[in-house]
Amino acid sequence: MAVIGSDLQKAKQLLEQNNVVAIPTETVYGLAANALNSEAITKIFIAKDRPFFDPLIVHVADLTTAYDYVEYIPSSAKKLADSFWPGPLTLLLKKKAIIPHLATSGLDTVGIRCPNHPVTLQLLKMLPFPLAAPSANPFGYISPTKAIHVNEQLGNKIDYILDGGECKVGIESTIVGFENNTPTIYRMGGLSVEQIESVIGTVQIEINSSSNPTAPGQLKSHYAPQKKLFFGNVQTIRESDVGILAFKEPSKFIPLQNQRILSPSGNLEEAAQNLFSFLRELDHLNIKSIVAEQVPNKGLGRAINDRLTRAATQ
Ligand code: TXA
Ligand code: MG
Known about the structure:
The chain is α/β, with parallel strands linked by helices. The protein is 29% helix and 18% strand. The chain is built from ten helices and 15 strands. Magnesium ion binds next to loops.
């Protein structure tokens, strides 16, 4: 198993030696390495068993540092960064040559984000390079929102997990690109469409689920637990071997230990924060399958419904 700790010097040293370290962010834990070094980046892909065609997000300490790695920042991107960085927002921008092709899977854009977590912001400020970091889960599985989740799945492949407590947002960053100067959302995430539109006006939304996506996070079968997950009306379930993931209301017909309620008060931020850890808990229970219900399709609810749709058995 990996060591879970809060030793920033140790994390720095490992990263300087081109090793991977799991890091906390406000969205989910990431599996980080020196984004300017291909050998270090390769270790991320191998630890995650991630296909090399799926590009990584590069994390920076602030907007000023981002300018070192991208050719230019369109004005709408700059407005978003000014409003929401540090935060759950990834911008797809034209990369400078210093970012290796391996990090971007050969694309000429790089996904770049400044995460809103004090531990990782401090680490980034201590390092002379940015950190490439995908979510710290095996490819295709649910993203980790606690250090222990990382250890459960990648503990035998990495040495160190920097502990930053439970992730506050709980769902990955929203990805926005600017092709043809048209702001476009490619992945729903921890920053809502409404928040983005309040700053730059109406945006295009292109959430594909094709086999050749612009952002492979769009792949349909993704973010999935091992148990079969179905969308449905949880109040109609009567089987004792089915677990339910409800939004607000528990069911009277299912044993309570087989139920998880995302937010009893109906708060979508709370629901997002609980989503992945509750899915993991249900995945570990002695049940055959999971039925999840849709949450209201607004604010973070759109990202929650997106992840549940991708996790659902087709
Ligand atoms: O919240 C997050 O974004 C977390 C934390 C650790 O920062 N990271 C994360 O990384 O979710 P990952 O690798 O699990 O998902 C990143 C997504 C992938 O679907 C990838 O295809 C897409 O971002 N992506 C990265 N760079 C891209 C690019 N240049 N063009 C299109 N999509 C890109
Ligand atoms: Mg991921």
